[in-house]
User: What shape does this take?
Amino acid sequence: MDMNLYSKKPKYKKMLRGLLFWILEIAGVILAAYLIIEYAVDKTTMLGNSMETTLKNGDKIIVNKLAYIRKGPDRYDVIVFKQSGKEHSYYSIKRVIGIPGDTVEIVDGFVYINGVKLEEEIKVEPMRLAGLAAEPITLEEEEYFVLGDNRNASEDSRFANIGLIVRDDIVGEAWLRLNPFSIIKKINRED
Assistant: This one.
């Protein structure tokens, strides 16, 4: 028997183990990347001018899909949603104004929540059209009232073709604007 053959076996096993470990590491990285892209973040583009001056047409947006796993959106969050039952395949982006349990009404161009005028945290103009919110709208569990920041050029919850947004239709929170880079919550704030 050749003693040289026995001395090479541990080297081959060690090399094979190293190769297997390397393959598992690559598979793990690919799986982690897939899970992040599929379940944690998404990328979309702002379409139209309904969110100006916060977001402009063509802005690239990173969506945090994990933001609302434990709880729903808060008032003033900018959300990304896809309406169920609608034919279009794009995401919509609007700001949450009314949350479950609120009664929302628009009087003389201003939003009232539960009969109290809403002190906006963002810079917006008074609305010319109250739409459906000319009469009080009470939000049920899992329902949200959304408005575009460009209130006079936005198709939002005031109108029947958008209406109230249900939680199951919310993809996530509009988190980052890529061009120019900014955290969306910090854009267009009242001082």
Notes: Helices lie at 3-40.
